[in-house]
């Protein structure tokens, strides 16, 4: 009996020290979130599930977790999704999403117990997305613009997506590719001779596609080396909790 009590107390303490995540679907249609842990990190909820309109789901991850969360759209009974698909299955189980898809990215409890988080459009865009911090779970350290503040892309970029980047279904744009995915060149993909911040500058590209994303969503990553205006940090109190909202 005493052993059972000890195990319950250990479990309760472990949960209290874990990071809480809340996923909320504010879209007027069903979304299928995809989840993927970084190498060596757990993948929560078997990597994916169905989230009906205006529904929420909560889960916890341990200290030091890192990974990504993305929305999938228009998934059928076979698990195939029009955007963000992870291999024709609802539970991604360690598979990433096929671009284009909007990403919420996290690296928790890093150097100095600091969390890093961002919304990335490097892999393209399919839905508006926002990262909120759960009140009472964090502490600000400098009150700066990127210190424990919401991150996101709130505008529907499908409305302004250039035709050469657009993914269409029944005549409607349902996702917007990155220039790398659309053209697969070293310059657009920041690889080869263009694999450093100095040699991969979107302002020097043949067409500055990231500027379209950046003007609409100034605090989201628009391409690989867009760190300065896109990375957010926070410290837990004791462990930071996050809410990821689709269609904020």
UniProtKB/TrEMBL annotation:
Xref: InterPro entries: Osmotin/thaumatin-like_sf, Thaumatin
SUPFAM superfamilies documented for this protein: Osmotin, thaumatin-like protein
Keywords: Disulfide bond, Signal
Annotated signal sequence range: 1-18
One Pfam family this sequence matches: Thaumatin
Record's keyword annotation contains RNA-binding: no
PROSITE patterns: THAUMATIN_2
Disulphide bonds in the chain: 27-247, 75-81, 86-92, 148-234, 153-217, 161-176, 180-189, 190-200
PANTHER family in the record: PATHOGENESIS-RELATED PROTEIN 5-LIKE (PTHR31013:SF12), THAUMATIN FAMILY PROTEIN-RELATED (PTHR31013)
Protein name stated in the entry: Thaumatin-like protein
Annotated organism of origin: Chironomus riparius
């Amino acid at each position: 009996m005493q052993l059972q009590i000890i195990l319950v107390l250990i479990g309760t303490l472990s949960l209290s020290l874990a990071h809480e995540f809340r996923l909320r679907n504010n879209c007027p249609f069903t979304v299928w979130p995809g989840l993927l842990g970084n190498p060596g990190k757990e993948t929560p909820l078997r990597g994916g599930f169905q989230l009906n309109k205006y529904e929420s789901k909560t889960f916890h991850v341990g200290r030091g977790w890192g990974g990504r969360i993305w929305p999938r759209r228009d998934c059928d009974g076979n698990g195939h999704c029009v955007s963000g698909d992870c291999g024709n299955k609802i539970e991604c189980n360690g598979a990433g999403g096929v671009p284009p898809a909007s990403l919420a990215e996290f690296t928790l409890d890093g150097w100095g117990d600091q969390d890093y988080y961002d919304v990335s459009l490097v892999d393209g865009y399919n839905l508006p997305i926002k990262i909120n911090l759960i009140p009472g779970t964090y502490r600000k350290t400098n009150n700066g613009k990127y210190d424990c503040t919401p991150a996101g892309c709130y505008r529907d970029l499908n409305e302004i997506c250039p035709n050469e980047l657009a993914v269409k279904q029944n005549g409607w744009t349902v996702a917007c590719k990155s220039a790398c995915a659309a053209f697969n060149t070293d310059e657009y993909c920041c690889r080869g001779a263009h694999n450093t911040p100095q040699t991969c500058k979107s302002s020097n590209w043949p067409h500055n596609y990231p500027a379209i994303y950046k003007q609409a969503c100034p605090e989201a990553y628009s391409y690989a080396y867009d760190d300065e205006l896109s990375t957010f940090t926070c410290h837990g109190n004791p462990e930071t909790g996050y809410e990821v909202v689709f269609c904020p």
